[in-house]
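Deliverable D5.2: sample structural annotation.
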Amino acid sequence: MRRPTADAGDRRHGPGRVILALYLVFVIGTVSRSAAQISTRFDQAPLAYTLSAVAALVYVVALVSLSLRGRAAWWVSLVALSVELLGVLAVGTWSYLAPQMFPDQTVWSHYGQGYLFIPLVLPVAGLWWLLSDRGARAVSEGTA
């Protein structure tokens, strides 16, 4: 039996599968959580719930762009993962410096402590995979 091979620039194989699976879990979790929070108790923690919605949007963009091939998808992935990492670092720091601003947690509060710090590790792993030889091939080969 022949082993299936991945096309150049296809980030859906190897460690990319694990990364995509984690992004899928975070998309489902953050979209449903932020929708429930915003629709039922937005007035209790508007900043935290808005940031949860922003995180959900970033996770959706990251999941979709990482699962597509080509130069444009690679660049969108790079931007999405960079924004995600900066968001986790900024919100994580902000939630420690001004805890009164966060009466309820977001996925990025305290660097994702409530989520086993996966929100901090996931964009780093995603950027590593994206910038690895397999992920970089999509850009260097000029696939669209």
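Annotation notes: The chain has five helices and no strands. Residues 2-6 have pLDDT under 50 and may be disordered.
The annotation will be released with the project's public dataset once the embargo ends.
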